[in-house]
Amino acid sequence: MKKRYFIIFFGLLTVFPSLVHSQPLPPFDKLFERWGPRIHPSDLRVLQLEMSPDPVQEGQRIRFEATISNLSHYSTRLSLFVKDRDEVVTSVQDVLIKPGHNRIIFPHTGYRFSRHEHCFTVEVDIEWTKRPIDVVREFCARRTHQGWTLTDIRVGPLFVEDLEMYPDPARTGQEVRFKVRLRNDGSSLRGNIRIQDRDQTIAYLNDVHLPYGYAEYHFPYSRYAFQRFDHCFTVIVDVERTPYRTDAAREFCAKPMGWTLKP
Question: How much is the pTM?
Answer without folding.
Answer: 0.53
